[in-house]
Amino acid sequence: MPHPCKNSTDKLVFNIDAALPDIHVQNAGLLTALTAKKFPFLGEVGLSATLVRLDANAMSSPVYAADSSVQLIYVAKGSGRIQVVGINGERALDTKVKAGHLFVVPRFFVASAIADGEGMEYFSMITTTQPVFGEFTGKTSVWGALSPQVLQASLNVAPEFEQLFREKIKKSTILVPPQN
Question: Is 162 exposed, middle or buried (0-12, 13-18, 19+ CB in 10 A)?
Answer without folding.
Answer: buried
